[in-house]
Recover the amino acids of this structure.
C-alpha cells in the first residue's frame, strides 16, 4: 500500500524540515531551486531520476541539524562551526535513505572547494558538494539582500569553484533566480517537477522511516520509541485479526505518530523530572504539529491514527477530547502501543517498568475507561509474544544507532586531528 502519493513525499519532508526552526523555513527548498538552475546551466538536460535525487538531497541537506542544534551557525554566512550537523546528516543518508551515494555531498556541503580538492575529493562528489555549498550560501546572501556578484567574486576559486560561481552568475542573468526567490514564483517551477516525481513503495517507506527515526535520534531516551510503538501496534493488530490494508495504515500511522516532536525542544524531551504545566503544554503541541505536517498528504486513516494516539475513551485525552465512539480500533491500538513503549523503555524521568507494573498500569487505565479494554486484554494475554516481536527490530535499530554514534565520534576525531573528516567504509 502506498502511504502517500509520490508527489507528496516532497511536501511531507519539507513540512518536517520547516518545523525544525523558523529561520530554516523554506531554506532547503530554495537551495534545491538554486542548485537546479546551476545544474541546468551547467549540464542542460538532466534525467528525471537524477533530478529527483539531487533536489531531495538539497531539500534535506540540513537534516543533521535535528541532532546537533547548530542552527545558529548554519544561518550565519561566515560561520565555520557547521561540521557536526554535516557529519550527522551524512550518516543519516548513509543508513536511512535511498540516497546513500550522495552522503559525501552532504558531508562536504559547507567545505571550501580548495580544501576538498586538497583532501582528494573529486568527480561527481566534488561537483555536487560545491554546487550545494554555493546554493546554500547564496540563499543566505539573497535573504540578507547582499550584493551577490561582489560577494561571490571574492570567494571564487577558494570557497567555491570558479566554474560553479560563473555558472550561477550566468544562470542568474538568464533565469532571474533572485527575483523568483523573492516573489515566490520559484515554487511553481519546482511544483511542475515535483508533480512528475515517482517513488516506489520501498522508497516511500524508507523516506518516511528516515524522518521518523531522525526525530527519535534527537534524544537517546527516545531512540527506540517509534520502532517500539510500530512493532507493538502491528503485533497487536495481528493478534486481533486486523486485515492487511488496515494493518498497513496502522503501520504508517504508528510510524508517523510523533513526527511533530521535531518542533519540541530537546531539553523538554530529555528533562529528568516532571514537566511544569507550561512544559507539558509545549509537549502536547507535538500532536498538533504532527497534524500540520501530515494533513492532506497521507491517507485519512493514517492521519487520524497518528494524531489521535493521546485521545482517551472517556474524553480526557488531547488534542480534541474525543470519546470512544469516535475512535477506530486502529487508533485505539496505536494509543495503547504508545503507552507500552513509554512504559517498557527507559526515559529521562523513569527506568524500565516490569511486566507486572506495565500490565497493572494498562489494566487500571482500561478500568477507568481511558484505553480500550479489548486491546488491553489482547496485550495481557499475549504479553511475552509482544515483547519478542518488539525486540526483534528494536535490537536492529539500536545497533544502527550505536554505529552512527561510533562513526560520528570517529569522524569528529578525524576532524579535530586532521582538519577534515571522511566517510568510514
Amino acid at each position: 500500500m502506498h502511504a502517500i502519493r509520490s508527489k507528496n513525499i516532497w511536501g511531507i519532508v519539507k513540512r518536517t524540515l520547516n518545523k525544525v526552526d523558523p529561520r530554516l523555513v523554506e531554506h532547503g527548498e530554495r537551495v534545491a531551486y538554486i542548485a537546479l538552475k546551476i545544474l541546468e546551466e551547467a549540464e542542460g538536460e538532466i534525467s528525471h531520476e537524477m533530478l529527483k535525487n539531487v533536489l531531495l538531497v538539497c531539500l534535506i541537506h540540513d537534516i543533521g541539524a535535528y541532532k546537533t542544534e547548530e542552527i545558529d551557525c548554519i544561518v550565519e554566512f561566515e560561520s565555520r562551526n557547521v561540521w557536526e550537523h554535516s557529519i550527522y546528516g551524512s550518516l543519516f543518508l548513509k543508513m536511512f535513505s535511498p540516497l546513500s551515494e550522495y552522503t559525501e555531498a552532504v558531508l562536504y556541503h559547507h567545505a571550501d572547494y580548495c580544501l576538498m580538492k586538497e583532501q582528494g575529493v573529486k568527480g561527481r562528489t566534488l561537483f555536487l558538494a560545491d554546487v550545494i555549498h554555493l546554493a546554500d550560501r547564496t540563499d543566505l546572501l539573497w535573504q540578507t539582500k547582499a550584493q551577490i556578484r561582489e560577494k561571490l567574486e571574492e570567494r571564487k576559486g577558494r570557497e567555491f569553484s570558479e566554474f560553479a560561481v560563473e555558472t550561477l552568475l550566468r544562470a542568474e542573468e538568464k533565469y532571474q533566480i533572485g527575483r523568483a526567490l523573492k516573489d515566490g514564483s520559484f515554487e511553481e517551477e519546482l511544483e511542475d517537477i515535483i508533480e512528475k516525481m515517482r517513488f516506489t513503495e520501498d522508497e516511500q517507506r524508507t523516506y518516511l522511516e528516515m524522518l521518523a527515526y531522525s526525530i527519535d535520534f534527537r534524544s537517546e531516551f527516545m531512540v527506540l520509541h517509534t520502532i517500539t510503538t510500530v512493532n507493538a501496534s502491528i503485533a497487536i493488530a495481528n493478534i486481533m485479526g486486523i486485515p492487511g490494508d488496515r494493518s498497513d495504515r496502522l503501520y504508517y500511522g504508528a510510524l508517523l505518530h510523533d513526527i511533530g516532536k521535531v518542533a519540541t525542544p530537546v531539553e523538554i524531551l530529555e528533562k529528568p523530572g516532571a514537566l511544569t504545566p507550561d512544559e507539558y503544554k509545549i509537549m502536547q503541541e507535538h500532536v498538533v504539529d504532527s497534524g500540520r505536517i501530515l494533513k492532506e498528504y497521507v491517507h485519512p486513516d493514517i492521519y487520524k491514527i497518528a494524531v489521535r494516539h493521546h485521545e482517551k475513551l472517556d474524553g480526557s485525552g488531547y488534542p480534541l477530547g474525543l470519546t470512544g465512539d469516535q475512535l477506530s480500533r486502529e487508533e485505539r491500538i496505536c494509543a495503547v502501543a504508545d503507552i507500552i513503549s513509554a512504559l517498557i523503555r527507559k526515559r529521562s524521568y523513569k527506568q524500565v517498568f516490569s511486566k507486572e507494573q506495565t500490565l497493572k498500569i494498562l489494566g487500571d487505565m482500561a478500568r477507568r475507561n481511558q484505553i480500550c479494554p479489548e486491546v488491553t486484554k489482547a496485550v495481557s494475554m499475549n504479553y511475552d509474544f509482544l515483547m519478542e516481536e518488539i525486540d526483534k527490530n528494536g535490537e536492529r535499530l539500536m545497533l544502527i544507532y550505536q554505529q552512527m554514534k561510533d562513526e560520528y565520534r570517529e569522524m569528529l576525531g578525524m576532524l579535530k586531528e586532521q582538519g577534515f573528516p571522511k566517510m568510514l567504509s
